[in-house]
Amino acid sequence: MKQTFPDGKVVYYFAEAQTTQTTFPDKLQVFKFSNNQIEKHFPDKTKEIIFPDGTIKCIFEDGEEESIFPDGTIQKIEKSGVKAIEFANGQKDILYPDGIRVREFPDGKVRKTYPDGRTEVF
């Protein structure tokens, strides 16, 4: 089913998938799924996904991603593949594509773990 509004907004409802797609005059598209997931596709190609559990994930045009979880954890993935996770308690994990893991503790200590299991503490 399609509805067109005077302001230029267009709404499609896909009954079988129970999904609504709304396109606004500025080209923003909003998808609402039956599981309460919402996706926003912005004209600059950025996508924002709001999951039913409250997690928010942004995918940027350059491929980088950022997720904010309900517990306050923030995860960022760079296009190089480096993943940084910041926890609500101040701990930070950095995971590199070559398998190296760095954990920064709230007290300032840093532990680096290599793919072969060796660790260094700074």
What descriptive keywords fit this protein?
14-stranded antiparallel beta sheet; 0% helix; mainly beta; 122 residues; 46% strand
Summarize the structure.
Helices cover 0% and strands 46% of the residues. It is mainly β and 122 residues long.
What does this structure look like?
The chain has 122 residues and is mainly beta. The protein contains no helices and 14 strands. The chain has a 14-stranded antiparallel beta sheet with strand order 1-2-3-4-5-6-7-8-9-10-11-12-13-14, with no helix packed on it.
Number of helices: 0
Q: Strand sequence of the main sheet, in spatial order?
A: 1-2-3-4-5-6-7-8-9-10-11-12-13-14
Shape: elongated
Separation, N- and C-terminal Cα atoms: 61 Å
| Count of beta strands | 14
User: How is the biggest beta sheet arranged?
Assistant: 14 strands, antiparallel
Strand content: over 45%
Mean pLDDT: 97
Question: What order do the helices and strands follow?
Answer: EEEEEEEEEEEEEE
Spans of at least 5 consecutive residues whose pLDDT stays below 50 are: none
